[in-house]
């Protein structure tokens, strides 16, 4: 079983397990965190469990291709959100990141801190060449996180995100192993 843990000054990223079910359900049930979410708000704990069980199974494999991390506050151990790193085909050495932070922790630098740590993990440990991310063009908070983490905006995909408000365009971002980055 994989025991990957990534630590920064203020947070710990660890692979999720079933004990995180209630915290993940609460996170996914917050209307403010659902604005740019394509999953929608789960109607029950059972629905959330069905969503995360494949993530947990993948986290238990020896060669993870789709990491799902819980973000914990190091000072008090509280669950702060989720972070994903999905690795593409090996020959491309590429991965995509996503994250969802509890609104209690917005605008405090935690998402940026987590993304920088994931970028360093991807390049230094997993030996990736490219890490990508996308976000709705209206999602100013995520745009700031991606740019503060050293990612560059590469383009715009038109009407690709099926949000509850309708189809949204998506900005595409990336960072390369050769780009300057924060450690």
TrEMBL record:
Pfam families: Acetyltransf_3
Residue intervals of the N-acetyltransferase domain: 11-172
Entry keywords, A to Z: Transferase
InterPro entries xref list: Acyl_CoA_acyltransferase (IPR016181), GNAT_dom (IPR000182), N-acetyltransferase (IPR051531)
Protein name: Protein N-acetyltransferase, RimJ/RimL family
Entry's transmembrane regions: none
Keyword Transferase: yes
Signal peptide from the UniProt entry: none
Taxonomic placement: Bacteria, Pseudomonadati, Bacteroidota, Flavobacteriia, Flavobacteriales
């Amino acid at each position: 079983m994989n025991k990957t843990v990534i630590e920064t000054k203020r947070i710990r990223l660890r692979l999720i397990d079933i004990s995180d079910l209630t915290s993940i359900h609460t996170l996914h049930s917050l209307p403010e965190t659902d604005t740019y979410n394509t999953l929608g708000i789960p109607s029950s704990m059972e629905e959330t469990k069905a969503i995360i069980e494949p993530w947990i199974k993948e986290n238990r494999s020896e060669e993870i291709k789709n990491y799902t991390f819980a973000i914990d506050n190091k000072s008090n151990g509280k669950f702060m959100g989720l972070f994903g790193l999905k690795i593409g085909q090996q020959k491309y050495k590429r991965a995509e990141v996503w994250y969802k932070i509890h609104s209690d922790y917005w605008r405090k630098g935690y998402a940026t801190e987590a993304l920088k740590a994931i970028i360093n993990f991807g390049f230094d440990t997993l030996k990736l060449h490219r890490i990508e991310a996308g976000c709705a063009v209206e999602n100013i908070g995520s745009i700031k996180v991606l740019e503060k983490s050293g990612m560059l905006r590469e383009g715009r995909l038109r009407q690709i995100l099926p949000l509850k408000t309708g189809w949204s365009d998506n900005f595409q971002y990336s960072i390369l192993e050769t780009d300057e980055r924060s450690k």
